[in-house]
Fold Peptidase C-terminal archaeal/bacterial domain-containing protein.
Amino acid sequence: MKKFIVSLLIAFLVPVFGFLNYVNASETLDFSKVQLQNSLEKNTTINFESPEEMIKIQGNTRSVLEKSVGVKKNEVKPTKVSDQATNDSPNNAAAIDIGGVYKDYITEEGQQKWYRFENSMAGKLTVVMQTVQSTSIDYDLHLFKLNEETMTLEEVVTSSYGGGKNEQLSKLTEGGIYYIAVNSVSGADPNSPFAFLVQHSPSYDQNEPDDNIYQASAYLNNIYLSQTIDNGYDMDWIIFQVDEEKTFTVNLNNPSSANYQLDIFDPELNALAGLGDNTNYSIVFPAGTYLLRVQSTSLEHDADQKYTLDIREKAKEGTSVVISNIGTDDNVEGYIDYGYGYKYRIKNFINVKGQLFDEMVLLYQMPMLKLV
């Protein structure tokens, strides 16, 4: 399957408040010698072919999931990073902790804010940033890893959606010292903060990292995935391509006690549908590219319990049946000719094996033979 990297405007809200155990950044290194060799770059853009019309769904749908933003009861309010350091370059990056929630301000266009943390455990890192909710302000999110031999920062992943859009990225790691940069691409608001956190997941599924659309894998005409939501902020993104208008059955099977949802977007991230879990849907997809997202409807999740996303073309009405065998009681089972042609003999019960066809296709026709 093809792998696509896209730059899109995404309108989704995620909560940015939560806590995990954390470790402190190492103080044995001279962080004043950290170097950034390359400038911050946005993700590469690709243009998708848009569907000609909206999808048609048989059954009830939900609004596209928007998680509320706020501080839960009995939780500490986010730390204001600007009180700790100027942190406008890698050399004076503010030290933060995994699981802590922080807020900061960008006061002018083009400004950068830098943060560093140490991850001592293998696993997956998720970085979530709630930006200023204004379409005229565009902040990008960047994650770097420190090469401790050369003391240079190596950019490992970027989230660069459009103005007023929250950012999220993920990275699999064996450990190390990481830097976060929040970069003002356009606009700034000295009175409105952005907020962010870093989450660590000790376990994750084989398709990670896929927390934003830039990390998503592409599938053509059918999808069958078995994955997990490894933390409350985890998002699983998928690119779904349809080569011609088709009707699909769609099911998000979730055996966990948490509630998950499948959201469907067009290539410009216009919301098309929100589908609940454990419900069968019949959906007509026009030809085109669709962006799918699975996430928890709250911070509830089960990192050990896999969900399955099954999207397949709906079978057409059956036109013919080919029976390969009929089984019954062993004492009478058989395909017997009593002088009237071969028939199955049955007693008490039958098990029928065969195939149902929605259309018959002639694969090969023998040429006519001429006898001489």
